[in-house]
Design brief:
It is built from 25 helices and 2 strands. By secondary structure, it is mainly alpha-helical. It has 2 domains: 255 residues, MetI-like (MetI-like fold), CATH 1.10.3720.10; 267 residues, Orthogonal Bundle (MetI-like fold), CATH 1.10.3720.10.
């Protein structure tokens, strides 16, 4: 054959090599994103289109209440978190050593537990109003005025007190990373403490404050227990109402789509604000700002300002719930509570293990594949954390129920007899919802930990004959074990506290600690609800301890 004939032939297309890592990463990403896509599809193709009815009746009220609640909680939490972070980062005052860590503790209290405690503390028969009537000689509620407890305002206070640590953590880190030279220059030019905060500290920390506020507002949209207890009708309560009371999954999906639009808008605004506002240090030697000692009334004033959100967000709810738990010691051995505890540990533990293993597999697979598709899919997997639990429940239960019926019919056709519902009749749907909802935590932890491992270590292992699995187990795992363990615990804690998805997806006669506490508190039975609430808080304290250690 002549060389000219060989060169004239068209070159063969290279065969695409199959990579199980890329395929696995794509499958995991598809599972995480699928519920969101299902919600959009159901909203566009409902079996019974009630969109005009929703627009003419309840949807405007749901939307208005949600937006007002979201903006109010975001603004108040940002003020509390950013203000407290500025004080502990810039000043020394009585108690600052323990207050800077105590401000993280409200994260251990689910907002719905704080709602139960606040109502019990401030209601007509509570200690506050009882004390006022005793002190001033009032006989009935007609003799004095007291603000309405079950209201939008109370919901704003409870949610802000429970969620402000998200802003506090990010703001405190931003303040501590700022350079001390700017503070000294401003002070030499005559700028006082307030001027330095507004002109230097706040603008430089604005991206961190915006990110924390966005998280707070997304958690506010996700909340169900608090707004339901305070009788505030939001989009999330609308999903429950339309789905469970009206039995209209398509209408619930349409409301869920509105929720997703709000969440996407929040995420977009937060990322845009960070992109437009960027600051860079021009100094090669970074020196943190010096903390100023506050004396007298100013020092105690700073202590009081920091203690107020801590007291409202942690001390008050935990004291009320703990007092009920101690008064009802016999409730700790209630078989229903023990079953709820076992269900919580079992389902949350399985979900945490599955989520973390999937996160490690996906991140490692993306790093190995070197292809563009898995890298494009990786950021999409964080959308589950932004989506409220009720939205994910809509996107998971409907297709899973259809698949479950087909699977049961197929098994019965082959083997005979009745097998019942395998997927939705068990805790499988809960595990799936938890994994999708909190996958971003596991993925972020695995990505950050693997990013700190030198690629040369993996190359050396491969050159010595280790397979990819062996490299993951023998090289990466010992180096990322701490981060993986932290992610495992954080995912488990979030599973324990998750209420909306659990209420919609739990099997019949299946309770977790969160659903038991909500059910008992909704019946005004805090005595039965308190042991489960204390257990949830204790689990949350473990996560707060991890955050405190990570932010030292």
């Amino acid at each position: 054959m002549k060389p000219s004939e060989t060169s004239s032939r068209p070159a063969a297309w290279p065969r695409p090599s199959f990579s199980p890592w890329s395929a696995g990463a794509a499958i995991i990403a598809g599972i995480v994103v699928a519920p969101i896509l299902v919600v959009f599809w159901m909203a566009l193709n409902p079996a019974d289109n009630i969109w005009p009815h929703l627009m003419a009746t309840t949807l405007p009220r749901y939307l208005w209440n949600t937006v007002v609640l979201m903006l109010s909680v975001g603004g108040l939490a940002a003020s509390m978190g950013a203000g407290a972070a500025w004080l502990v980062a810039r000043y020394r005052f009585p108690g600052v050593g323990w207050i800077q860590w105590a401000l993280l503790l409200p994260l251990a209290i689910p907002a719905y537990v704080g709602a139960y405690a606040l109502v019990d503390f401030l209601e007509y028969a509570g200690p506050v109003q009882t004390g006022l009537r005793s002190l001033f000689g009032w006989q009935t509620a007609r003799d004095y005025w007291f603000p309405e407890i079950r209201s939008m305002g109370a919901a704003v206070i409870v949610l802000s007190a429970a969620l402000f640590p998200y802003v506090y953590i990010l703001s405190r880190a931003a303040y501590r990373e700022q350079s001390g030279e700017g503070e000294e220059v401003a002070r030499s030019l005559g700028a006082g403490a307030v001027a330095r905060f507004w002109r230097i500290g706040l603008p430089l920390a604005r991206p961190a404050i915006a990110a924390g506020s966005a998280i707070v507002m997304m958690e506010t949209v996700n909340d169900f227990g608090t707004v339901d207890y305070f009788a505030v009708q939001t989009l999330t309560t609308g999903i429950f109402s339309v789905w469970l009371e009206s039995n209209n999954a398509g209408g619930a999906a349409q409301i869920a789509t509105v929720v997703l639009m709000l969440v996407i808008l929040l995420v977009t605004l937060e990322k845009t604000s960070r992109r437009k506002i960027q600051f860079f240090s021009l100094s090669t030697r970074h020196r943190p700002p010096t903390r100023t000692q506050l004396h007298g009334i100013w020092g105690w004033g700073a202590t009081t300002v920091c203690l107020i959100p801590f007291a409202v967000g942690f001390v008050l709810p935990f004291s009320v719930i703990l007092s009920y738990a101690l008064e009802n010691a016999d409730k700790w051995s209630d078989p229903a509570l023990l079953r709820a505890l076992w269900n919580t540990v079992r389902v949350g533990g399985i979900a945490a293990v599955v989520t973390v293993l999937a996160g490690v597999f996906m991140v490692y697979g993306v790093r190995l594949s070197g292809r563009s598709l898995p890298r494009l899919l990786l950021p999409l997997t964080t959308i589950g954390y932004a989506a409220p639990g009720a939205v994910l429940a809509v996107g998971i239960l409907i297709p899973l129920a259809a698949l479950d019926h087909r699977l049961a019919n197929a098994i019965e056709a082959v083997f005979g007899g009745r097998v019942g519902l395998i997927l939705t009749g068990s805790s499988f749907a809960l595990v799936l919802a938890y994994s999708v909802r909190f996958f971003a935590i596991a993925q972020g932890a695995a990505d950050g930990a693997m990013g700190r491992v030198s690629p040369s270590l993996a190359m050396a292992a491969r050159s010595l004959g280790r397979t990819r699995w062996q490299t993951l187990i023998e090289v990466y795992y010992p180096l990322i074990r701490s981060s993986v363990g932290s992610a495992l615990l954080l995912v488990f804690v979030d599973c324990v506290k998750e209420l909306p998805a659990t209420m919609l997806l739990r099997p019949f006669n299946f309770d977790t600690l969160a659903t038991r506490v909500h059910d008992q508190a909704s019946l005004e039975n805090l005595g039965d609800a308190s042991p489960g609430a204390v257990m949830i808080v204790l689990v949350g304290l473990v996560a707060v301890g991890l955050l405190a250690r990570a932010n030292r």
